[in-house]
């Protein structure tokens, strides 16, 4: 149960229709202060429409959105929320420093306070040595990091990141990922991404939506334990006696969801498989078999996502 005093964003029975199309359908969510909340769904699921309503760019057909237990008009909303969109929005002929000063001025910032904020952001995103470089001359990864700085210039309490690691090399991904994690001490972060590994690594909780409806909300760990295509364990055995392997298969089938034989190997699929490993190995040893190799692939957030939304291609 979510503590009502700890809610940063409260979405209640939110609906948005465009003619006959219901893009968001009676969506209710509580996003807590100081958490990274993953907002996942296939293309066309209603994520962008929901974000646009949270940020005041769209008005709901029905329902409500409260920030910190209050309702704000569009002008005040922008001071609470910073948005880093999927597509980089920059001014090509301005330098990195000029971009941030210009954006800061738009939020009413100036003088020493703005100068300090610009320096901090450029330093955090490893762009300090590029502060006087025209944006059109930056690499794709640098532009992405600059876009994150622009979203943070007014020090908002709520940050919305849409595919924050898009176009980044591994080093930049680590930098951005660690930076986002560091922000949760004082900010609430709403993260949308198609990268399930990114969502898994960053999110405290995730919501999966499809066709505008909420399917599930929980921590990535809990979702992987209870949903998806099950963990998979492959065990290569030293014995070649097919009858004995078959006996082992029959015994394991009583405690595991699915046990297959492939040559001298057992392919085991089951939820919470990691908790059964000691029982499985003990049973195999009881039959006098030795284990040559032992390979475990745990259930992934992608497995959960596909399980809930299907394999059919969308947009």
Whole-Å distance between the termini? 35 Å
Whole-number radius of gyration?
24 Å
User: What's the number of helices?
Assistant: 11
**Strand order within the widest sheet?**
5-6-7-3-8-9
**Would you count the extended β strands for me?**
13
How many domains would you count in the coordinates?
A: 2
Q: What gross morphology would you assign?
A: elongated
The average pLDDT is 91
Proportion of beta-strand residues: 25-35%
Relative helix content = 25-40%
Describe the model.
The protein is an alpha/beta fold and 315 residues long. The chain folds into 2 domains: 4-224, 3-Layer(aba) Sandwich (Rossmann fold), CATH 3.40.50.300; 230-298, 2-Layer Sandwich (Alpha-Beta Plaits). Helices cover 35% and strands 27% of the residues. The protein contains 11 helices and 13 strands. It has helices at residues 47-54, 74-80, 96-106, 111-124, 140-152, 170-183, 196-202, 220-226, 242-252, 277-286, 301-309; strands at residues 7-18, 21-32, 36-40, 62-67, 81-84, 158-162, 188-192, 205-210, 213-218, 231-237, 258-262, 265-270, 291-297. The protein has a 6-stranded mixed beta sheet. Strands 11-12-10-13 form a 4-stranded antiparallel beta sheet, with helices on one face. The protein has a 3-stranded antiparallel beta sheet with strand order 2-1-4, covered by helices on one side. Helix 3 packs across helix 4 (111-124). It is elongated. The chain starts with 6 loop residues before the first strand and ends in a 6-residue tail after the last helix. The mean pLDDT is 91.
């Amino acid at each position: 149960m979510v503590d009502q005093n700890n809610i940063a964003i409260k979405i209640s029975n939110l609906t948005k229709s465009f003619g006959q199309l219901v893009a968001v359908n009676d969506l209710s969510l509580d996003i807590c202060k100081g958490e990274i909340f993953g907002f996942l769904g296939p293309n066309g699921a209603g994520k962008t429409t929901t974000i646009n309503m949270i940020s005041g760019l769209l008005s709901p057909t029905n329902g409500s959105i409260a920030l910190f237990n209050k309702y704000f008009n569009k002008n005040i909303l922008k001071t609470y929320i910073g948005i880093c969109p999927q597509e980089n929005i920059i001014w090509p002929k301005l330098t990195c420093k000029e971009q941030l000063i210009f954006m800061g001025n738009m939020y009413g910032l100036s003088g020493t306070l703005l100068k300090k904020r610009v320096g901090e952001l450029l330093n955090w995103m490893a762009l300090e040595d590029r502060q006087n470089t025209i944006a059109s001359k930056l690499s794709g990864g640098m532009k992405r990091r600059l876009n994150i700085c622009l979203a943070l210039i007014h020090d908002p309490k709520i940050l919305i990141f849409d595919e924050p690691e898009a176009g980044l090399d591994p080093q930049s991904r680590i930098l951005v990922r660690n930076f986002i994690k560091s922000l949760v001490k004082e900010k609430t972060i709403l993260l949308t991404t198609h990268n399930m590994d990114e969502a898994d690594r960053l999110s405290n909780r995730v919501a999966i939506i499809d066709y505008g409806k909420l399917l599930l909300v929980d921590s990535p760990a809990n979702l992987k334990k209870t949903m998806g295509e099950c963990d998979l364990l492959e065990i290569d055995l030293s014995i070649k006696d097919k009858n004995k392997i078959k006996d082992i298969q029959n015994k394991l089938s009583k405690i595991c969801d699915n046990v297959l034989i492939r040559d001298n190997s057992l392919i085991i699929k089951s939820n919470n498989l990691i908790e059964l490993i000691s029982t499985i190995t003990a049973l195999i040893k009881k039959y006098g078999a030795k284990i040559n190799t032992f390979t475990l692939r745990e259930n992934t957030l992608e497995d959960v996502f596909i399980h809930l939304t299907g394999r059919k291609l969308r947009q």
